[in-house]
């Protein structure tokens, strides 16, 4: 695909009626909260592969659930309104379930049982929320199509660059550099096309053209509200990982305190006993 001409760039930033622009303007607060949280936690995750894989595992279940529902809509014999809209802009090249599966297999030593199902409370609740809300309002899928996928285009290259230089994050392979090994665990950010910015621009354009006239105003408002919920629940997942790892560290420290306290207690008791015996002997003799 050749580079898009200026007149093909849709929506323009000044188009206040475009659904994508309305989502962006309405979710600035939620976006900033997640952005700051991700930036801080990402710096920590770069030093610990176990924390990083916990993070992408959460996103894996979100993408997997959303893409399952998208395919359900697209493959339905009786094409629904949402299925019709999706067919006009959805591009399989942006799907992330398969790339994330490759990343997680690498980080979990080819053991899919370690990540096949959501584990943490926040992950389970997020997946349940997507499925239950979709049943009532199938158009909310379009919120995920904007928020989750365009975020990868926007920040994926930056994260990928940082990951490629992160020493100690990736399980090492004999004879390969960190940069070479990193490619096994960064498929999430790879689109395997010549220019992913062209894919991004065409995806945004087709999304806007497909949604502009096909949705009611109430459906658009539902999508905007769900976009806020996506950011909130992403923030919850990140906080859940932070809490889990903090508790692990605390529990390890508590265990050490208990063990060390036990032996220190014995030592103090021994000294006290010796001191008491010495006083008793001195008193008697």
UniProtKB/TrEMBL annotation:
Q: Which residues bind heme b?
A: 31
The UniProt entry, under CDD domains, shows: HemeO
Upper classification of the source organism reads:
Eukaryota, Fungi, Dikarya, Ascomycota, Saccharomycotina
Q: Which GO terms describe its molecular function?
A: heme oxygenase (decyclizing) activity; metal ion binding
User: Could you tell me the keywords of this UniProt record?
Assistant: Heme, Iron, Membrane, Metal-binding, Oxidoreductase, Transmembrane, Transmembrane helix
Species the sequence originates in: Wickerhamomyces ciferrii (strain ATCC 14091 / BCRC 22168 / CBS 111 / JCM 3599 / NBRC 0793 / NRRL Y-1031 F-60-10) (Yeast)
**Stored Gene3D superfamilies:** Heme oxygenase-like
The record ties this protein, via InterPro entries, to: Haem_Oase, Haem_Oase-like, Haem_Oase-like_multi-hlx
* Top-level EC class: oxidoreductase
One GO-annotated biological process of the protein = heme oxidation
Q: Could you tell me the superkingdom of the organism this chain comes from?
A: Eukaryota
Which residue ranges traverse the bilayer? Answer: 260-281
Q: What is the name of the protein in this document?
A: Heme oxygenase 1
Stored Pfam families: Heme_oxygenase (PF01126)
The EC code for this enzyme is 1.14.99.3
């Amino acid at each position: 695909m050749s580079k898009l001409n200026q007149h093909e760039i849709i929506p323009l930033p000044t188009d206040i009626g475009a659904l994508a622009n309305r989502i962006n303007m309405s979710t600035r607060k939620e976006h900033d909260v997640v952005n700051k949280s991700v930036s801080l936690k990402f710096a920590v995750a770069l030093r610990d592969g176990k924390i990083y894989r916990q993070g992408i595992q959460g996103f894996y279940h979100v993408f997997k659930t959303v893409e399952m529902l998208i395919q359900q809509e697209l493959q339905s014999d009786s094409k629904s309104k949402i299925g019709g809209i999706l067919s006009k802009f959805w591009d399989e090249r942006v799907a992330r379930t398969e790339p994330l599966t490759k990343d997680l297999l690498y980080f979990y030593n080819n053991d899919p049982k370690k990540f096949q199902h959501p584990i943490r409370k926040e992950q389970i609740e997020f997946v349940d929320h997507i499925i239950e809300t979709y049943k009532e309002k199938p158009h909310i899928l379009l919120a995920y199509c904007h928020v989750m996928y365009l975020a990868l285009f926007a920040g994926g290259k930056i994260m990928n660059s940082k990951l490629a230089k992160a020493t100690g994050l990736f399980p090492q392979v004999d004879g390969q550099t960190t940069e070479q090994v990193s490619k096994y665990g960064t498929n999430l950010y790879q689109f395997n096309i010549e220019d992913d910015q062209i894919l991004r621009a065409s995806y945004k354009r087709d999304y806007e053209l497909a949604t502009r006239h096909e949705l009611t105003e109430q459906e658009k408002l539902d999508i905007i509200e769900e976009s806020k919920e996506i950011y909130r629940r992403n923030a919850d997942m990140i906080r859940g990982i932070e809490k889990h790892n903090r508790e692990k560290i605390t529990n390890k420290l508590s265990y050490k305190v208990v063990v060390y306290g036990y032996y220190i207690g014995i030592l103090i008791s021994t000294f006290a006993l010796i001191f008491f015996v010495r006083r008793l002997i001195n008193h008697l003799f």
